[in-house]
Amino acid sequence: MHRPNRLRVTGVLASALAALTLAACSSPGDTPASSPADPAAGFPTTITHAFGTTTIPTTPERVATIGWANHEVPLALDIVPVGMSKATWGDDDGDGLLPWVEDKLAELHAPPPVLFDETDAIPFEQIADTRPDVILAAYSGLTRDDYDKLSKIAPVVAYPGIPWGTSLPDMISLDAQGLGKSAEGHELTADLEAEVAAALDEHPELREAKVLFTSFGGQNDLSTIGFYGTQDPRAGFLADAGLGVPAVVAAESHDAAQFWIEYSAEDVESFHDVDLIISYGSDDPEENQKTLDTLQAHPLLGTIPAIRDGHVAFLGTGPLSAAANPSPLSIPWGVRDYFALLAEALT
User: Fold this and answer.
1) Residue 70's Cα: distance from chain center in Å?
2) Angle at CA of residue 246, ends 269 and 243, nearest 5°
3) How confident is the model over 106-131, as pLDDT tens digits?
4) CB atoms within 10 A of CB 328
5) Cα–Cα distance measured from residue 271 to residue 96, given in angstroms and rounded to the nearest whole number
6) From residue 221, how far is each of 211, 258, 277, 298 by CA, in Å?
7) Phi, psi at residue 315, to the nearest 5°?
8) Per-residue pLDDT band at 258 (split at 50, 70, 90)
9) What are phi and psi of 214, to 5 degrees?
10) Measured CA distances, 29 to 84, 113, 289 (Å)
11) Span of the secretion signal (predicted)?
12) Distance of CA 108 to the CA centre of its chain
């Protein structure tokens, strides 16, 4: 599911406490008896988020997720959701599952959960039909109305700050708390951080390179240049990993109310410390070269050092472009290839 450069998101029944979906012993349709509150697992637990607080009374046995990659938190902890978001970006075989999710389901010997298509709107009735005990949406673009409708189905773990602005560690922490697995969530984050550090060690030249994450692909209007702020996990992940942050990104990310920021091309001097640009683009290298040629010929944008020197890493439309928006399962699958792509563009 590729999110465009604007905030875009778009029930209704009471929830039923039902089945624990551990892949090794059950399927999304099984319905064992509901469980009591479990103080040892941290229940009841209350989670604070952008819309207030959510209390989850007992260990959830049926887990639904919406938004980008929230389903990967339970999967990484060997819990198979009863329903989750359908992948509509980076899906290499059209089955609605990214390859690292397919790999994990196969490892757990689990069939695919119900897939929610959120392209036009959140499918509230379809979500309700899965009878979840909790809905994980710590990284999402829920509106207040969305949240209120979903809360009539089950307790909702919403994002802590701005829509689509949750860091990967925060997504893992919040979603894991909603599952009663906070300790396991902390361990997962530590493991991922170690994997990222090891991958970056293979390309030390990236450590201080100041990186701008944008989207030039198919862009006809060159009067502006937009970029993701560090609240967005794409840019935030790179900063946390140890890559450099351009001054304009650092300044505009402070207390920003949205994850996408735009500047006039006339303010091009603001980007003169950018060493490397990451951009969504085409799967066709020739098309990406045409885009770069156009940018280099532009009287303003062509003066940005990264554009002038051709230090632009174009992401296509395949799985690696989805892995650039990092998640618990995509990091082990693709972070080394991702950093290798960036290092190649920097040389």
Assistant:
1) 8
2) 150
3) 999 999 999 999 999 999 999 999 99
4) 27
5) 37
6) 22, 21, 18, 11
7) -90, 135
8) confident
9) -135, -160
10) 14, 9, 49
11) 1-24
12) 22
